[in-house]
Amino acid sequence: MAKSEFQHSEAFLQWIWENLLFDFAELETASGERVQIINPGSLNSTDGPDFKQAKLDIGGVKWYGDIELHLKSNGWHAHGHDKDPNFNTVVLHVVAEGENREVTCENGAKPYILNLSNYLPDELKVFLKSFQTTKGLPCGSALNFISEEAFLKQIEKAHIEYFEKKSDDFLKFYNPELLPSKAWKHALILSVWDGLGISYNRQSMQQTARYFLERWKGGSVKEGIHLAKNLAGVGEETSDISWNFKSVRPANHPKKRIEQAVVITLQILANSFEDFLSIRSLNLWQTWTQNISVKRSSRMEILYGTVFLPSLYVLSKLYAHQKLSEEVLSKWKELKTPIPSSLLKKFNFLPVDSKLYRKKLGTIHQLKSYCGPVRCSECFVLKNAIQS
Questions:
Q1: Contact assessment for residue 146 and residue 381, using Cβ atoms and an 8 Å cutoff
Q2: How far from chain centre, in Å, is Cα 104?
Q3: Nearest of 18, 24, 30 to residue 97 by alpha carbon
Q4: CB within 10 Å: which end of the chain, N or C, has fewer?
């Protein structure tokens, strides 16, 4: 059996309806009545019809009610809507393919049927076909027009979302059972060790950091490194911590990363908590990394954005420090970080200037959270291309 043209989720179909990404000037129901969309309704996030409080003109009669969408007409009965009184308010059943089967509500009413596949624009149809066959980005080969302005808008959106995600990630290390100042410092330390363990030894670095914080009673940097290596089992003593040494480059070897982590840890512990509540705290990371002679390290620049700035942002929210919060967000928005070209190769074929994305950490979030899971319906690029 040949694949149908619309190989997408109902969420994708909802997006098309919500944004009116179809030719709505000449709509007709399956039974031939003209349809005018006065208001497509509001997307419903709870039980019941997909869109609530829509306003339509069907066959010259004004209808106020709800809209239900399915990929196929038989979805209505398959989902039990014919026995659910929550769907008695549906006036239009929108489908994307299949037979235009008549449906019935629990109260006996029969909603009109609109097959949307007949009204999809050519640009969207080309995209849908490419969606199932391309190994790269569907928009890279399927869209004739990609707006740099829309692309930049999407990257900026992903950039902010990524910052929010990294702030949430930081909170996972925050222990509310400790004093706030100690909890925040420990969360920052654990976040740094975690970041230095990317990508093969994150858990091992986290565990070493926890052991270190439990055992460290003060001393020199040399003593701290000696203790941490022994706790990790990469020094003179054995440990229950296991490490992945396979394919690890010298600069990323656990011994090297532990040394760097200890130096930063001791500086975090040495700084007074008040230091972090000052705007001047934004310069601390540069001072710390200079002390370990890696100020130009791409890893350290990435950690500045993905660990240090989110940690200060969380701190500013915990203590209602509006000025610090604003400064941190400003730094993040302006942040330019070297990203390995291998991670961005999927964007190489897009007709947009690479300067728009190659040094923005939000690009990584775009690839992982939008392009990877194919959340095209939530991307400004596709919507702009279809509407242009």
A1: yes
A2: 39
A3: 30
A4: N
d(CA 23, CA 98): 19
Q: What is the Cα–Cα distance from 17 to 30, expressed in whole angstroms?
A: 17
Report the DSSP pairing between strands 112-115 and 51-58: unpaired
Distance (Å, whole) CA 157 – CA 115: 33
Q: What is the mean pLDDT of each run of 10 residues along the chain (388 residues)?
A: 57 87 91 96 93 96 96 91 96 87 94 91 72 64 77 95 97 96 98 94 97 96 96 93 88 92 96 95 93 72 96 97 97 92 86 89 93 83 75
Greatest CA span in the chain, whole angstroms? Answer: 86
Model confidence, pTM: 0.77
Strands 61-72 and 51-58: antiparallel
